[in-house]
């Protein structure tokens, strides 16, 4: 084993170690350092001198020995040295209570007689401050704000031996920011707070408070955005600077008034047609109000007022979009609810009425703004007729004739209902149809028509309509007379009533037949001495005819469908009255009178012929009328001969007739006019 080493010196510079110095021992490869305090020991192997034993207790007295070591073993311990470890360093607690001070405190150190604390700017500028104290705390003042300082502290014992030192870097808290400005964004309801940066500040905190509400914004820059502010609020804004040393004092509060809230309890009333009243509740921090009213045609008006209501002109049938804003120095309130108000639709105009019949009228008008539906009411005659339609037209039926109606057309909208201010219009219906009560004949071609008057101030027109044409008569009373109606015609008689309101429907038609026409031409021809042929032209409207020849001596009558008739039992040489009755299918009769008729004179009787000579003949006859003249005609194959006696004679002579012939002899009365009679009896003379 190597020799025992000799300790030259042993000392403690740190509270947890002791350093030992010795002379080297030949042959020793290592050394063992041992520190004993009576309760424990600590061994440390080192290569050479000096060597340090660590893991010791501060301010503790140790016995220090050294042994030399090699492969052969270890030496005996060296003579010991007593060494006490130095005091432990105080553990500092440091903070900056203000921007120009640093407070340092620590716990008491065992066996320490005092403490030494020094402070210096970490950047080396300025002088170092040092204080010795037996207390466990102290404060350095008059420091630079926001500056990093290095603080070193140690304790010493009763011998003045310093212990371990403790170093701590502490920054003073910053100064309060200056030149704080608040910019309010009314549209976004946020504030931008800015300030001048302060020395040593790492972060800033902006506090926006209103009553119990506090909003904060933290930033490392010199401005901060505070969102979500409330309208109609007054805030107080302060800024505090922060660093690792603490915080500055808050800046003096800057007052911030936000924009007023959007007005509420907005009501819109149409206090009278054409006037809108917009009212609302007062808004906190609102200095004045602006109401914007925009119509659905794009036109916009506004009202600026410090009161809580505004009046506007309005038009019917429009929808107005209404928004109310409050204003103050901060700006305009946020957009609140946009209200729409639809005014009552306009009253219909350009009113037109067209009667489709006496009890039906079609009403039409120009479509109006805002109308979804139209209601038409017609009141009159103790009743009411109404219709509803989406079209600007209405057909009212079942109206009472000759009645004055008050017609009101109202427009409706789903949003506002009806316009009750529409003025009524007056319309009178056409007169009622008259009812014909009686038709009487006043003459051959004169008809009187009577009806029931059932209208006021109406003119009645009676029309006779037939193939022959139209005949009219007019009256304001209850009857009129149709004149000059043609005979033999069928008519349909109807009546209408007219008034300024229009024309009634025609009455029910009543058929009328005029008596048949008398034939224009009537001819009598005597066929035989006792038979006469009567013929006539067609009488219009006649179906049968009754002809009669009347005289004191008797009457001859014939009823026929034809336009001629043979009448027998005629007395020759008699004056007759000629009459004819034309009779229609329905039995209407026209009595026709004509010029009198005289039957031909009677043929002479007792005709005898006497030969006077070889070539002469005398003809005798017995005259039926002494006043008549006669003529004798002699017809033969060799010639025709005649003779006429002197007035009053009943014979005449025919001379120079050829002999040896057969002759026909006829004695006929001589008339001033008319054809020669052919029905007198003939005599054959040979």
Automatic annotation (TrEMBL):
<feature type="domain" description="Fibronectin type-III">
    <location>
        <begin position="176"/>
        <end position="261"/>
    </location>
</feature>
<feature type="domain" description="Fibronectin type-III">
    <location>
        <begin position="1"/>
        <end position="88"/>
    </location>
</feature>
<feature type="domain" description="Fibronectin type-III">
    <location>
        <begin position="262"/>
        <end position="346"/>
    </location>
</feature>
<dbReference type="InterPro" id="IPR013783">
    <property type="entry name" value="Ig-like_fold"/>
</dbReference>
<dbReference type="InterPro" id="IPR036116">
    <property type="entry name" value="FN3_sf"/>
</dbReference>
<dbReference type="InterPro" id="IPR003961">
    <property type="entry name" value="FN3_dom"/>
</dbReference>
<feature type="domain" description="Fibronectin type-III">
    <location>
        <begin position="89"/>
        <end position="175"/>
    </location>
</feature>
<protein>
    <submittedName>
        <fullName>FNDC7 protein</fullName>
    </submittedName>
</protein>
<feature type="domain" description="Fibronectin type-III">
    <location>
        <begin position="430"/>
        <end position="517"/>
    </location>
</feature>
<dbReference type="Pfam" id="PF00041">
    <property type="entry name" value="fn3"/>
</dbReference>
């Amino acid at each position: 084993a190597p020799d025992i080493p000799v300790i030259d010196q042993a000392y403690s510079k740190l509270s947890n170690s002791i350093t030992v110095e010795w002379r080297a021992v030949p042959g020793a490869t290592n050394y063992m350092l041992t520190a004993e305090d009576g309760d424990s020991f600590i061994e440390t192997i080192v290569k050479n001198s000096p060597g340090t034993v660590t893991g010791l207790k501060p301010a503790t007295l140790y016995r220090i020995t050294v042994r030399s070591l090699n492969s052969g073993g270890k030496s005996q311990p060296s003579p010991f040295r007593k060494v006490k470890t130095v005091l432990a360093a105080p553990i500092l607690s440091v903070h900056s209570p203000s921007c120009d001070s640093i407070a340092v405190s620590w716990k008491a150190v065992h066996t320490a007689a005092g403490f030494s604390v020094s402070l210096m700017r970490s950047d080396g500028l300025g002088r170092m401050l040092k204080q010795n104290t037996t207390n466990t705390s102290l404060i350095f003042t008059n420091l630079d704000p926001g500056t990093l300082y290095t603080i070193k502290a140690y304790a010493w014992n009763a011998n003045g031996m310093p212990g371990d030192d403790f170093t701590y870097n502490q920054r003073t808290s910053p100064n309060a920011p200056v030149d704080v400005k608040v910019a309010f964004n009314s549209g976004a309801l946020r504030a931008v707070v800015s300030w001048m940066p302060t020395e040593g500040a790492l972060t800033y905190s902006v506090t926006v408070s209103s009553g119990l509400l506090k909003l904060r914004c933290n930033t490392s820059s010199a401005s901060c955005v505070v969102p979500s502010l409330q309208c109609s609020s007054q805030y107080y804004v302060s800024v505090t600077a922060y660093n690792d040393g603490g915080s500055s004092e808050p800046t003096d509060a800057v007052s911030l008034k936000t924009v007023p809230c959007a007005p509420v309890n907005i009501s819109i009333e149409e206090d009278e047609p054409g006037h809108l009243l917009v009212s609302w509740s007062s808004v906190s921090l609102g200095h004045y109000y602006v109401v914007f009213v925009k119509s659905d045609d794009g036109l916009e008006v506004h009202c600026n007022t410090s009161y809580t209501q505004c009046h506007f002109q309005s038009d019917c049938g429009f929808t107005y979009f209404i928004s109310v804003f409050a204003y103050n120095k901060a700006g305009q309130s946020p957009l609140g609810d946009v209200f729409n108000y639809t005014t009552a639709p306009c009253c219909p105009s350009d009113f037109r009425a067209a009667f489709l019949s006496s009890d039906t009228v079609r009403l039409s008008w120009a479509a109006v703004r805002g109308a979804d539906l139209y209601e038409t009411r017609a009141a009159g005659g103790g009743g009411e007729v109404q219709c509803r339609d989406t079209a600007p037209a209405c057909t009212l039926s079942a109206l009472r004739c000759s009645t004055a109606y008050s017609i009101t057309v109202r427009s409706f909208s789903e949003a506002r209902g009806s316009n009750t201010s529409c003025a009524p219009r007056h319309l009178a219906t056409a007169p009622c149809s008259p009812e014909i009560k009686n038709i009487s004949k006043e003459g051959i071609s004169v008809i009187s028509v009577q009806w029931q008057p059932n209208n006021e101030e109406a003119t009645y027109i009676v029309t006779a309509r037939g193939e022959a044409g139209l005949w009219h008569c007019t009256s304001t009373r209850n009857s009129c007379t149709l004149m000059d109606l043609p005979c033999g015609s069928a008519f349909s008689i109807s009546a209408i009533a007219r008034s300024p309101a229009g024309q009634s429907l025609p009455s029910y038609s009543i058929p009328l037949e005029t008596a048949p026409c008398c034939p224009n031409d009537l001819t009598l021809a005597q066929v035989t001495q006792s038979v006469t042929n009567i013929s006539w032209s067609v009488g219009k409207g006649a179906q049968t005819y009754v002809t009669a020849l009347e005289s004191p001596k008797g009457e001859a009558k014939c009823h026929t469908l034809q336009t001629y008739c043979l009448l027998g039992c005629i007395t020759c040489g008699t004056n007759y009255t000629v009459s004819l009755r034309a009779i229609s299918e329905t039995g209407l009769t026209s009595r026709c009178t004509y010029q009198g008729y005289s039957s031909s004179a009677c043929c002479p009787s007792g005709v005898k012929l006497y030969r006077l000579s070889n070539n002469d003949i005398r003809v005798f006859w017995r005259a039926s009328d002494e006043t008549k003249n006669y003529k004798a005609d002699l017809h033969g194959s060799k010639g025709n001969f005649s003779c006429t006696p002197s007035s009053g004679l009943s014979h005449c002579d025919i001379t120079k007739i050829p002999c040896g012939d057969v002759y026909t002899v006829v004695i006929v009365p001589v008339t001033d006019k008319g054809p020669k009679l052919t029905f007198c009896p003939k005599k054959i003379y040979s």
